[in-house]
Amino acid sequence: MTNSIKDVCEDSQVILLVGSNPEEAHPVMGMRLRQAVERGAKLIVVDPREIGLAKKADIHLKLRPGTNVAFANGMVNVLIQKGLVDREFVESRTEGFDELAAMVADYTPERVAEICGIDARDLEAAAEMYATADRAPIVYCLGVVEHSTGTEGVMALSNLALAAGKLGRPGCGINPLRGQNNVQGACDMGAGPADFTGYQKVANPEMRAKFEAAWGVELNQAAGLKATECFPAMIDGRIRGLFLFGEDPVRTDPDTGHVIRALESLDFFVCEELFMTETAKYADVILPGRSYAEKEGTFTNTERRVQRVRKAVDGPAGARLDTEVFADIMRRMGYDQPTLTGAQLMDEVASLTPSYAGISHARLDSAAVAGQGLQWPCTGPDHPGTRIMHEGAFSRGLGGYSLAQYRPSAEQPDEEFPLIMMTGRVLAQYNAQAMTGRTEGLNQIDGTSFIEINDADAAAAGIADGDRVRVSSRRGVIESQARVSGKTNPGEVWMPFHFQDGNANWLTNAALDNISATPEYKVCAVRVEKA
Amino acid sequence: MLNITIDGRALEAREGQTVLEAAREAGIHIPTLCYLAERSAIGSCRVCVVDVEGQDAPVPACTTRVVDGMQVQTATERVLKYRRMAVDLLISNHGLDSTDYCFSCVKNGACELQAVAREVGVSHPTFPVAQMRKPVLDSNPFLRFDPNLCIACQRCVGACNNAAGNHVLQTGKRGVRTTIRAPFGPNWDATICESCGNCAQACPTGALVEKRRGLYREWDTHTVRTTCPHCGVGCQLDLVVKGDQIVDVQAADGPSNDGLLCVKGRSGSFDFVNSPDRITTPLVKNPETGEFEPADWDTALDLVARKFAELKEEHGGESIAAFACSRSTNEDIYLFQKMARCAFDSPNVDNCARV
């Protein structure tokens, strides 16, 4: 998030919520957005489903899945046509606006309405509501990014915020709601092929030299593969060994059949896990790890806030701290890594990472921080952290625009697979249920697979609410239970991916975003029949 | 700034502040029961009454705004008597009979009504105690409402409506007949209740509780402040620990969660930690049988180190991939990617951000 949860929820006049269902996926954020609406903030929901917050919205653009780029380009088009561009911001803080204006000229409300399946007047009203508010954040989530055009979708929203001058101020900004508790931190910590800690680029020779000196090794020069690119590489033999730390791709990655083939192709596969997951079953070695309640450390939340994780219990005998295990393996492979405490490891991160330089466990535990955590960039021990990013200047200087055109999703419905399927989360469960599935009450609230289907499609297929149905795509067939309603539009269905008794990921498409390599979980073509 | 005095102490207060807020800011204690900061201030329990110079009767501190020159007394004989009467009336209508005078109540010892009664000097009800046996609503998997113990303070209503913004808990009737309409009966799953439990955390008595509250006593536990392990909001919570087990979770007032939690954070953050199916020994798959067999750490780690060293030797570090866990800590992840880059010589390090 460029901004903070507090200012997005408390200082905003209009909230533009795109591809995000926070009442279920980020529930406390959902509660705070409901509070925002009740204090008088206007809400625009851009989502293909009738999510709970759509009922509280001033405008709901129930657009066709996979058309976010067209929507955002259309918003910029309306801003230009109606004279709602923040000229002063555009001129003083950005470059290349004329090229953007030329690119979006084709995205008239009428054309965008046609692509997105919405009413042109709603698009114009949304653009006007967003642009005329002084303080209006864009909040988005996986409904924007989990597409083969996901990165372009994010950049198109960035165009909109720049054109409207809504960056670098309280109650504004571009605010992704990150999925997992520490996915922000995982990216910050250098667990990506292109970045060391704090997004210091592996491809930059200076950065490479810095880390080689600090770590006392010569690093591999080859360009690394992203996780989603690794699975095909396992099948064709380029990747032969995998160390998987606490993930369950057999349940959570697209096209389950493909994932299993990839894991079976490996020469050697190690899982560090708490439980015997579906994925761990394919491992050669399973190492028992420690849960968050058994260790000292930090998580970095969606607003870049580094907060403490503290040890509450020892946990079961026999398991070992993950950091001890990694250090042990490193030593056995000839790298002299001492076993360090969580606090010592964070000190090492801070010493190598300008944006984390002012962060330590001692400071996070101090009376001065008072349990508020620290938001990066936090560049020194006296730096207070950064509540709002891009005040005054962007990291590249002037803000740039993306000129990405709308492209249709990789897989389109056809005669054989006539429905678009989206996937997502429900309130009571989290991802592969490794944690939430072990609380009986949560399973009682939502514990089995279902598929939401529109009344009209259900009637045409002779399906009644509650019927068992067979759902198939080019990649697989599963059974589930129909929930018939108007929540999705005709021609569209929606499934959670939590439940192993009918897991949507047997069906999803591993088409990857052209930049981030994120899979297109939100659009694949399926057929639904009575089982 | 407004100049006021509380118990003779000269204080500055801000326009719009209540007497209670001004007193708390100055460290002056006024007992409260139905008041819940930023959630609910309905002035119904009358425990926080104070005397204000020029007013005929005591006024509730939680709803009375300060005015310039106001002179407040928090403990006059009249106020103390008034408070005792208020608490006396509350406990005589609190279902004492249904819990054998607190003995069987799950909140015994952690009950705010008990604490306030002790503070104001009410050790037993002087009015006849109602013999109530209203049906308990406990069909929700996590939450239970016992109307016999409800003192109609409406803090749960404030938590659900003003904080969680869900508007599912409501009051029925008015005045002394006020009841709480809690959605935890047989049709609990047909309501929009999110089972977040913010109502239970707000309840001062044993009326609205998480069912697991009965499994521990306050004084057997300690709490550990940590960060929720589920989504990216980063809610702050207190794990309630009894011996070597986590038995409950309370919301803490963190910057992103403002004292709130959802059903996953409150009820899904600890059962898995204690789960009997945790893996507790390294497992190595027997290539002959395909079955996992327990191994000691030394054997397992030697195997892991040897196999990755062989792959590195024969096919280069680029033949190895390492995926970190977005659910684990920064410290774990930092060392994991360092292991991949430095020991495996692998450039293929990633996490589950993309999936």
Topology:
The complex is a heterodimer of chains A (about 525) and B (about 350).
Chain A lengths: L4 H6 L3 E5 L3 H4 L1 H13 L2 E5 L12 E3 L6 H14 L5 H7 L3 H8 L4 H8 L3 H13 L5 E3 L1 H4 L4 H14 L10 E3 L6 H6 L16 H11 L11 H9 L5 E5 L3 H4 L3 H10 L2 E6 L11 E4 L8 E4 L4 E5 L12 H11 L9 H11 L8 H4 L9 E2 L43 E6 L15 H6 L5 E4 H6 L7 E5 L4 E9 L6 E5 L12 E4 L6 E2 L3 E7 L1
Parallel strand pairs in A: 1-2, 1-4, 2-3, 4-5, 6-7, 7-8, 12-16, 13-15
Antiparallel strand pairs in A: 9-10, 10-11, 12-19, 13-16, 14-15, 14-19, 17-18
Helix pairs in contact in A: 4-7, 4-8, 4-10, 7-8, 13-15
Chain B lengths: L1 E5 L2 E5 L5 H7 L23 E4 L6 E2 L10 E3 L3 H16 L19 H9 L22 E3 L9 H9 L6 E3 L6 E3 L16 H5 L5 E3 L11 E6 L8 E7 L2 E7 L11 H5 L15 E3 L6 E3 L2 H19 L4 E5 L5 H14 L4 E4 L4
Helix pairs in contact in B: 2-3
How would you characterize this protein structure?
The complex is a heterodimer of chains A (531) and B (355). Helices cover 32% and strands 16% of the residues of chain A. Chain A is built from 20 helices and 19 strands. Chain A has helices at residues 5-10, 22-25, 27-39, 68-81, 87-93, 97-104, 109-116, 120-132, 142-145, 150-163, 183-188, 205-215, 227-235, 249-252, 256-265, 322-332, 342-352, 361-364, 440-445, 455-460; strands at 14-18, 42-46, 59-61, 138-140, 174-176, 241-245, 268-273, 285-288, 297-300, 305-309, 374-375, 419-424, 451-454, 468-472, 477-485, 492-496, 509-512, 519-520, 524-530. In chain A, the strands form 5 sheets. Chain A has a 6-stranded mixed β-barrel with strand order 12-16-13-15-14-19. In chain A, strand 17 (509-512) and strand 18 form a beta hairpin. In chain A, helix 4 runs antiparallel to helix 7. Chain B is an alpha+beta fold and 355 residues long. Among the domains of chain B are: 2-75, Ubiquitin-like (UB roll) (Roll); 216-277, ADC-like domains (N-terminal domain of TfIIb, Single Sheet), CATH 2.20.25.90; 283-354, Rossmann fold (3-Layer(aba) Sandwich), CATH 3.40.50. Helix content of chain B is 24%, strand content 19%. Chain B contains 8 helices and 16 strands. Chain B has helices at residues 19-25, 77-92, 112-120, 155-163, 198-202, 263-267, 297-315, 330-343, and strands at 2-6, 9-13, 49-52, 59-60, 71-73, 143-145, 170-172, 179-181, 208-210, 222-227, 236-242, 245-251, 283-285, 292-294, 320-324, 348-351. In chain B, a hairpin with a 2-residue loop joins strand 1 (2-6) and strand 2 (9-13). In chain B, helix 2 (77-92) runs antiparallel to helix 3. At the A-B interface, helix 3, helix 11, helix 13, strand 6 and strand 7 of A face strand 10, strand 11, helix 6, strand 13 and helix 7 of B.
